[in-house]
Specification:
single chain; 416 residues; alpha/beta; 4-stranded mixed sheet; 30% helix; globular
Length: 416
């Protein structure tokens, strides 16, 4: 679907969307618990729907509601083919969970997920005694457990998501386990995982995020779990207000472990006009200056940061671009190409994206089927000199289905 966004001043209040990452973690924990858990404020984006479907296939009973989701945990396998859609977290989280079963299970996906490397899953599960095979390093993955526990080594330089899957599945294995991790990136996401595990009364210890010790034979305790709002999606709203608005963004917890909460530090460095009252962040249009930020631990911030940099006076540098190669698109090249169409010069230098702020012009751009590229283009359009047309804008459903509706409510002129 192509949508167009006209230059628009936005105002009012928007509640940030619920976190899809925390929703998926809570779904996995609820699946493994014995009894009914209630997930309050869940995300029903495409990635979360994939996680719900997987939980049902692996035995859980899932009852979605408008404000909460009820999940009764069970491991009575119902389907041996799991479809993760385009969710990188789902494939790396639920593959280890699927290995708990004494049955051959095929894990597959669609779209960009078929192009993302899966060798690390195969290598890790094999170390733990699981029969696991990929199609020459890509989907589909065939898995046959049961996962019994033990020791393994993994490389965390590409993603921390596989570690999340191991940390969530190994506690219910028969043996104690140790996971040694080198070059771990996105440590805040592991802190989020550990937080969820603690809430469900699972014990995991670690030494400097390099050695994780997981006692086996533990039991997840069902509970009521409230999903916090998503800083990844909220970042786009905050940048929108800073570019051309007077906006209140509610629901974002300033003490969150989410790595993308770092957007607040960047906005401050860029000179954005902000005021925080409780869980409401008021942000309005102001003169913005160039910034320098290391996004290695928060790679999902690259799209909103490039959008912000486009409206900053001077040249901004966003470091950690090597983290962008294996996302829904190659985001470094996608951002360079699409912002170039809008008149903004973006280049890759060493491990950084360098953005020269300037005048954003109307253009016809391609989302590359990447939800964050689509949102970046839409927000960039708000202060542009002309209309921005976004191909495949439906991709926002992956993480923030109501994104364009929320922009409309705030006064943006959106056509579809």
């Amino acid at each position: 679907m192509e949508r167009s966004v006209e230059p628009s001043f936005i105002s009012g209040e928007i509640k940030a969307p619920p976190s899809k990452s925390m929703t998926q973690r809570a779904i996995a924990a609820s699946l493994l618990a014995e009894g009914e858990s209630i997930i309050v404020n869940p995300s029903y984006c495409d990635d979360s729907l994939a996680a719900m479907s997987i939980a049902v296939s692996l035995g859980a009973k899932v009852k979605p509601g408008p404000d909460s989701m009820r999940i009764t945990g069970s491991r009575e396998l119902k389907e041996t083919k799991l479809n993760c859609g385009e969710s990188g977290l789902a494939i790396r989280l639920f593959s280890p969970v699927a290995s708990l079963f004494d049955a051959e299970i095929t894990v597959t996906g669609s779209g960009s997920l078929k192009r993302r490397p899966m060798q690390m899953i195969e290598e890790a599960l094999r170390q733990l005694g699981v029969e696991c095979n990929t199609a020459e390093g890509y989907l589909p993955i065939t898995i046959k457990g049961p996962l019994g526990g033990g020791d393994c080594r993994i490389d965390g330089s590409i993603s921390s998501q596989l570690l999340t899957g191991l940390l969530m599945s190994l506690p219910v294995a028969e043996k104690d386990s140790t996971v040694l991790v080198k070059n771990l990136r996105s440590k805040p996401y592991i802190e989020m995982t550990l937080e969820v595990l603690k809430d469900f009364e699972i014990e995991v210890s670690n030494d400097n995020f390099e050695i994780f010790r997981i006692p086996g034979r533990q039991k997840y305790i069902p509970l009521t779990y409230e999903v916090e709002s998503d800083w990844s999606g909220g970042a786009f709203l905050l940048v929108a207000g800073a570019i051309n608005g007077s906006l209140k963004v509610s629901g974002l917890r300033t003490g969150s472990r989410q790595s993308d909460a770092a957007i607040m530090r960047v906005l401050k460095d860029a000179g954005a006009n902000m005021k925080i009252t409780g869980d409401i962040i008021e942000i309005s249009k102001s003169d913005l200056k160039a910034f320098d930020f290391d996004a290695t631990e928060s790679p999902d911030l690259f799209p909103p940061l490039v959008t912000l940099a486009a409206y900053c006076e001077g040249v901004s540098t966003i470091r950690g671009a090597s983290r962008l190669a294996h996302k829904e698109s190659n985001r470094a090249s996608a951002l360079t190409e699409e912002f170039g169409k809008m008149g903004i010069h973006v280049v890759t230098e060493n491990d950084s994206l360098v953005v020269r702020g300037g005048k954003v012009s109307g253009a016809r751009v391609n989302s590359h089927e990447d939800h964050r590229i689509a949102m970046a283009a839409a927000v960039a359009a708000l202060g542009a000199s002309g209309t921005v047309y976004i191909k495949d804008s439906h991709s926002v459903g992956k993480s923030y289905p109501s994104f364009f509706d929320d922009l409309r409510k705030a006064g943006a002129v959106v056509h579809e």
